[in-house]
Write a structure and sequence with these properties.
heterodimer; A: alpha/beta; Rossmann fold; 5 helices; globular; B: alpha/beta; 6-stranded mixed beta sheet; 34% helix
Chain lengths: 139, 274
């Protein structure tokens, strides 16, 4: 895994906050990593563990779940489910031997275009360091 | 009087006199010995109770749930172990059993059961018959787990899950697996036609669904024809649910399922780092 490795990252973004944030980042011409494959969901609470696992199985080296900050959820408490679920999935990944750092939860609001860039850049850099998932999982 | 004789006597008494409040009971769910072996059975008033058995361990609450759904007014009694009572608690709060229509006649497990099941509470809270044995030891695999590296864990589970013949026995026997549509049969998440099923996603789906539900009855592991130590994974998830959300599955019927309610009702105990 040299520095040439470009990770594939699936990012689940909530329709109301993060997706709009990503949009405004684009409108403001703030460059964000092209490694991110955005998947728009109506709420970060919609992201089931099955969706995360399918992303990994489909070749993602990292999965980023993004939604509204706690208190800002369009559905008032959808992200409450997310904040409880993601740590559990992370732990479970660790238990079966996949680095839990490959899954991350981040809150990005519609007005936080710079934060969107910051978060996606940092996560991409982290996954680039970790290397391809296929190499890690191949025993 | 032996434990089993005492239980038979109490069941006969309940069938004639009704439950603790004197409300009539239509039947008592317990195990029954016949020429074909031992199987769950609904004993009714006047039945011969000499065939009533308490062993081997069997998740009787699944049958109670089915009967409650099939017959919306039926009132049942059930002869139950500690794990059955815990199963009941998690099922009742998810609307699978009506607590108002169930009388639990609890009995204590033997010390040997507690040992083999690594059981932390080998007797029901509503204990009627028997003396509570000491809790069993924690599974040594769970105890040493934190010291294992990611690679070791992966190698361990890869070897274990490769034995899976995808019989769904773990799901079928589980008292807490009652969804009508199962994610483990959904082609969106599990590609059909693969044996062993996709590693590690297939078993991760079940482990995630078991978090906040698994009451550690060990039925999945006992039933698994491939002898996969499934409950090691579920015990770790149980531990996390307790650390993260302060919730112990099967402990308190009034505690809401923490993953299904918002933070005000079931807050995170330790910061998830976000």
């Amino acid at each position: 895994m040299g520095v040439d490795f470009e990770p594939k990252i699936v990012a689940f973004m909530c329709n109301w906050c993060t997706y709009a944030g990503a949009d405004s980042a684009g409108v403001a011409r703030l460059p964000s990593p092209a490694n991110i494959l955005p998947i728009r969901v109506m709420c970060s609470g919609r992201v089931s563990p099955e969706m995360v696992m399918r992303a990994f199985r489909a070749g993602a080296d990292g999965v980023l779940v993004m939604g509204c900050h706690i208190g800002d959820c369009h559905y008032s408490a959808g992200n409450h489910r997310t904040i409880k679920r993601v740590p559990l999935v992370r732990n479970l990944l660790g238990y079966v031997g996949v680095n839990p750092e490959r899954l991350e939860l981040q809150w990005v609001s519609a007005s936080e275009a710079p934060r969107f860039v910051e978060v996606t850049k940092a996560f991409t850099a982290k996954i680039r360091q970790l290397g391809p998932l296929a190499e890690e999982v191949a025993v | 009087m032996s434990e089993i004789e005492e239980i038979r006597k109490l069941v006969a008494e309940r069938l004639t006199k009704g439950d603790a409040k004197g409300t009539t009971i239509d039947g008592v769910v317990a195990l029954c010995k016949s020429s074909d072996g031992i199987a769950p059975y609904v004993f009714q008033k006047g039945d011969d109770l000499s065939g009533l058995e308490i062993s081997p361990k069997y998740p009787v609450m699944t049958l109670v749930s089915k009967l409650h759904k099939m017959f919306p007014t039926i009132r049942l009694g059930v002869v139950a172990r500690g794990c059955d009572e815990r199963a009941y608690i998690e099922m009742a709060k998810r609307n699978q059993i009506d607590p108002d229509r169930l009388y639990i006649l609890g009995f204590a497990c033997t010390a040997e059961d507690a040992q083999t099941c690594h059981c932390l509470a080998p007797y029901p809270k509503q204990l009627v018959v028997g003396t509570p044995p000491a809790p069993g030891p924690i599974n040594p695999l769970v105890e040493k787990y934190d010291a294992m590296s990611l690679g070791e864990r992966r190698a361990f589970w890869k070897q274990q899950f490769n034995k899976c013949i995808k019989c769904y026995g773990c799901r079928n026997i589980c008292p807490e697996c009652f969804c009508e549509a199962c994610a483990m049969e959904d082609m969106a998440w599990v590609e059909p036609g693969l044996l062993a099923p996709p590693f590690p996603t297939f078993h991760m789906i079940r482990a995630m669904h078991m978090a906040s539900r698994c009451i550690a009855c060990r039925e999945c592991e006992n039933t698994c024809p491939a002898h996969i130590p499934l409950t090691v994974l579920y015990d770790l998830m149980r531990r996390d649910i307790t650390t993260l959300l302060g919730y112990t599955p099967g402990a308190d019927i009034a505690a809401k399922p923490p993953l299904s309610v918002n933070l005000d009702e079931a807050p995170l105990r330790v910061g998830a780092g976000h």
